[in-house]
Specification:
two-stranded antiparallel sheet; three-stranded antiparallel sheet; 130 residues; 12% strand
Length: 130
């Protein structure tokens, strides 16, 4: 088994020499493959991604869907260190939500240790253990 350095989960895919079967809940075996090779995802030059550990380690279960929408927005707009400084007004306009929602969602993300907030700065934090 090939592991991704510094991450602790097995690497998959042909680039790691692993293309073996995956299990579904029904125990049906499938082979992983690209459905649309013309749309292969790569990390863009502006450095934006969502760490799969967000789901795998249970971080998504700690917050509401509204907080996850804010988290996705912050991950998308952050620089390579996870920092951004979007105003509340700009965030609300882009997400089409109200100020009360934003304050609640932000507090949830801070409490879940997913972001740090010091007005006007946001920092998307590295994921700790669930």
């Amino acid at each position: 088994m090939v592991s991704v350095p510094g991450v602790g989960y097995p690497a998959t895919g042909p680039e790691h020499g692993v293309s073996g079967p995956l299990c579904r809940e029904s125990e049906e075996m499938i082979r992983k493959h690209l459905i649309r090779s013309d749309r292969l995802r790569v990390v863009p030059p502006q450095f934006s991604w969502v760490d799969h550990r967000l789901v795998r380690e249970g971080h998504v279960a700690k917050v509401s869907c509204e907080a996850l929408a804010l988290y996705l927005f912050l991950v998308t707009v952050a620089d390579s260190e996870g920092v951004s400084f979007w105003s509340d007004r700009s965030i609300l306009r882009r997400l089409r939500l109200n100020e009360s929602w934003l304050k609640t969602a932000r507090a949830e993300l801070v409490d879940a240790d997913l972001i740090a907030y010091e007005s006007p700065l946001y920092q998307v934090l590295s994921l700790g253990r669930a």
